[in-house]
Amino acid sequence: MLNLFNIKRLSWGTDTNGQQKVVLSAAEVESLRSELADLEEREAHLKARLEHIDEILRCARLSGYLHMRTRWEALPGEPPALDETEVDDWLPRFVVLQGPCIFLYSTSTDMSPQDSTLLSDVVEVGCMPCHTQDDGEVQYFFYIVTRHGLRYECSSASKLQVDAWVTTLQDECKLGSDSTTLES
After folding, report:
1. CA-based end-to-end distance of the chain
2. What average pLDDT does range 50-58 have in this prediction?
3. Which of 71, 90, 91, 170 could anchor a disulfide with 67, C-beta 3.0 to 4.6 Å?
4. pLDDT > 90: what percent of the chain?
């Protein structure tokens, strides 16, 4: 049984009764105490992160992972900044609709959002054409445009998830719903 805990840096010995025991120097004992203290601190930090996530999800009207990219709307007469076909800048984001804001987190365990947008700044929400990838999986898309000209393009493999986001955002932002469902 003790061999299950055989840590390479610990020296095992046998006492006079034939029982196995660990032989440690004072420095090794202090090192282990320090490691335990570090692990306890890490555990407390992770518990705080979980409590934070739990609170966010309890208060959120909608949340989930979406692939996103951001663009600035071109000014009148300005040429497009990028050739969209050459750039693959879609990043997974954990998106939370909570209170008067849309929060964007890099991961669901982040303590603070990477970006946020007020719902009062959203001027347009709509669907984009779906796309079948090389592996046969269909991606569904929608966009969010703010009054500042920032355009969030979002995608998911789940049509239901995209429909839920579009419908909820149009309702929350009190926008007319031109088309709230996606074409297959």
Report:
1. 58
2. 79
3. 90
4. 41
Q: Which sequence spans correspond to the domains of the chain?
A: 21-59, 61-76+89-172
In whole angstroms, give the CA distance from residue 173 to residue 57: 21
Enter the CATH code of domain 61-76+89-172: 2.30.29.30
Residues whose CB is less than 8 angstroms from the CB of residue 137 and which lie 6 or more positions away in sequence, other chains included: 157
Calculate the CA 41 to chain-centre distance.
Answer: 24
If you average pLDDT over every residue of the chain, what do you get? 82
Name the pTM for this structure: 0.67
Asked whether the beta carbons of 71 and 78 are under 8 A apart, the reply is: no
For residues 17-29, b (16+ Cβ closer than 10 Å) or e, as one string? eeeeeeeeeeeee
Task: Assess whether pLDDT exceeds 60 at residue 9.
Answer: no
Write down the pLDDT at residue 183. 47
Contact 96, 112 (CB under 8 A): no
